[in-house]
Write a structure and sequence with these properties.
Elements: E1 2-4, E2 11-12, E3 15-16, H1 20-34, E4 39-42, H2 59-69, E5 73-76, H3 81-89, E6 96-99, H4 106-109, H5 113-120, E7 126-128, E8 150-152, H6 154-168, E9 174-178, H7 187-193, E10 199-202, H8 204-213, H9 228-241, E11 244-246, E12 250-254, E13 263-267, E14 276-280, H10 282-292, E15 297-301, H11 314-328, E16 333-337, H12 341-347, E17 356-358, H13 362-368, H14 374-380
Parallel strand pairs: 1-4, 1-7, 4-6, 5-6, 7-8, 9-10, 9-15, 10-11, 15-16, 16-17
Antiparallel strand pairs: 2-3, 12-13, 12-14
The chain binds adenosine monophosphate.
């Protein structure tokens, strides 16, 4: 059984530094093992662009998988051909084999049929458990589904169920919390969300652009003044769709962007010209906390302030903790993911208390943009 997972984990000096993605592959691997299958694990790692690059070998990741699994894992020095066949032949049914980085072959990213056939020849069936790679039409996520019986793995299933619960047919009112640095990177996300949610809560640097577009002087704040027209379009579309856009009414400002910088809370219409907005102010935080209490579903992407630097993590922390509390008490379905979101929620101590936190970056954002994900569409068809 071929199982496409995402083992593109953080590494330092040849050692895996965060095993979250590895742990998340275990339910599918164990399920298949329990049914007697030999589990042949496929993944990419980094961007070797069709070249065999030692520093992008999956061998150290196979060792980390062996530790997490608590069982022997056999490593195959190639994902196709004689090396792959030999590794598979040396393992029994019920055992796990990890094959070398798919992207050592240019055919992977080219969605090449011949390369897909070479992988398909190794097994009788295929499971895709890599939602985080589903936004790419690659040989191991797309072409292969035409060549073998194909199914979704447990992680893919969990992820799709969480996402469809949040935006497919959600319990209302549904709010989206969108933060982060710039609106230019999230135009499609905002454009899609205004047609799906009842309230669009905008924070972080991108809120500054909306404030600027509304005629507010944001001083030295990070803002994209050339995106003011786009911000106006989003506000007009939101009004037409009946989606309420919620912007900060007050902010934590400082003259410098550094830890322990002297800061003060001011109304957004009195930001000093020599200062920058780095977080929500207390009135905005309190307003968001009240609003969350009236919602049934929350989708979250991006921090609401410069959360890496205390005290500018206060807004993100307060709103994340309240979302977590309401979720744990059964009032709220909460789904988060993309970019810095996981780090921001972890910093708030809330990451384990949301209904679902996706480790998929690009795929989660493309889903928020309302796009069809080729890896999911291939399984459906
Ligand atoms: P993104 O990758 O677009 O989600 O942006 C995340 C980054 O936005 C984080 O590094 C935050 O520090 C940064 N950020 C959030 N709010 C602000 C702000 N008001 N001013 C400057 N940077 C911010």
């Amino acid at each position: 059984m071929l199982v496409r997972v995402d083992l593109n984990v953080p590494m330092h000096d040849g050692l895996v530094t965060d095993t979250t993605r590895i742990e998340r592959t275990l339910p599918t691997i164990r399920d298949l093992q329990a049914k007697g299958a030999q589990v042949i694990v496929l993944s990419h790692f980094g961007r070797p662009r069709g070249q065999r690059k030692l520093e992008m070998s999956l061998q150290p990741v196979a060792v980390a998988l062996q530790t997490s699994l608590g069982q022997k894992v056999t490593f195959g020095a190639d994902c196709i051909g004689a090396d792959a066949v030999a590794a598979i032949a040396s393992a029994d049914n019920g055992e796990v084999v990890v094959l070398e980085n798919l992207r050592f072959h240019a055919g992977e990213e080219a969605n090449d049929g011949t390369f897909a056939q070479a992988i398909a020849d190794l097994a009788d069936a295929y499971v895709n458990d890599a939602f985080s790679c589903a936004h790419r039409a690659h040989a191991s996520t797309e072409a292969i589904t035409c060549l073998l019986p194909a199914a979704a793995g447990r992680l893919m299933q969990t992820e799709l169920e969480a996402l469809s619960g949040a935006l497919g047919n959600p319990e209302r009112p549904v709010a989206a919390v969108v933060g982060g640095a710039k609106i230019s990177t999230k135009m499609d996300v905002l454009g899609n969300l205004v047609s799906k949610v009842d309230q669009l809560i905008i924070g972080g640097g991108m809120a500054n652009t909306f404030l600027f577009a509304s005629g507010i002087d944001v001083g030295k704040s990070l803002s994209e003044t050339d995106m003011a027209d786009q911000a106006h379009d989003i506000m007009a579309n939101a009004a037409a769709e009946g989606c309420e856009i919620i912007l900060p009414v007050d902010a934590k400002v400082a003259q410098t962007f550094e830890a322990g910088a002297r800061s003060q809370a001011v109304s957004v219409d009195s930001v000093p010209t020599d200062s920058m907005i780095l977080d929500l102010g207390p009135v905005s935080i309190n307003d968001l906390v009240q609003r969350l209490g009236r919602c049934r579903t929350v989708v979250w992407n991006g921090p609401l302030g410069a959360f890496e630097i205390s005290p500018f993590d206060a807004g993100t922390n307060a709103v994340a903790c309240e979302t977590a509390r309401l979720t744990q008490e059964g009032f709220l379905l909460s789904v988060a993911g993309g970019g810095d979101t996981v780090a921001a929620l972890a910093n708030a101590g809330a990451v384990d208390h949301f209904s679902y936190v996706s480790t998929a970056g690009g795929a989660f954002l493309e889903w928020l943009e309302g796009k069809t994900l080729p890896g999911v569409a291939a399984l459906e068809s």
